[in-house]
Amino acid sequence: MKKFNIRRVLLLLLLLVGIAVILRTTLFANYVVDGKSMEPTLFDGNLLMVNKFVYELSDVNRFDVIVFRASKEEDYVKRVIGIPGDRVEYKHDKLYINGEFIEERFLESYKEASSVEKFTNDFTLQQITGEIEVPEGNLFVLGDNRQDSLDSRSFGFISNDQIVGKVDITYWPLTEKVNK
């Protein structure tokens, strides 16, 4: 009778491990942050768990931190600033979306610690992309370290098709977490 129970437990464990592996490979991905473009939210070497399935169920939200395919060889991690229909503008180091000031709380600590007078240079979406608003099916993304980030100010909009997923968890180092 004991052999039967042990076999059942082992079979159940094997089944659970198999399910976990399948879920892990289809729903989540691991990424390592490379560079300083997302400081102070994410740091070089942080290990991230990216939810690859969330945007099948819901829309991308402003200020989500996402991973997207920048090229065949590289993926980038950035923060969504503009969603379809948004008119994005920076004036006097402040973000305006559709003419309304939007506070970026996730940048406060970095701005306070920075010796830079102007954290984000003034621009309008039209100056950078030639578009007045973010087109349907596209996003405008920025790195949190505005002084040292290759983002939509350089390469323009990203397509929803480029999105790998949403950064949900920073699991190394253990004390870090994604600022919202």
Automatic annotation (TrEMBL):
Pfam families from the UniProt entry: Peptidase_S26
Catalytic activity: Cleavage of hydrophobic, N-terminal signal or leader sequences from secreted and periplasmic proteins
Cell compartment(s), UniProt: Cell membrane; Membrane
InterPro entries with a match to the protein in the record: LexA/Signal_pep-like_sf, Pept_S26A_signal_pept_1, Pept_S26A_signal_pept_1_CS, Pept_S26A_signal_pept_1_Lys-AS, Pept_S26A_signal_pept_1_Ser-AS, Peptidase_S26
Keyword Transit peptide: no
Topology relative to the membrane: Single-pass type II membrane protein
Keywords of this entry: Hydrolase, Protease
Highest taxon listed in the record's lineage: Bacteria
Enzyme Commission no: 3.4.21.89
Residue ranges of domain Peptidase S26 in the record: 7-172
PANTHER family: CHLOROPLAST PROCESSING PEPTIDASE, SIGNAL PEPTIDASE I
NCBIfam families per record: sigpep_I_bact (TIGR02227)
Family designation: Belongs to the peptidase S26 family.
Protein name as catalogued: Signal peptidase I
Organism: Oceanobacillus kimchii
Gene: sipT
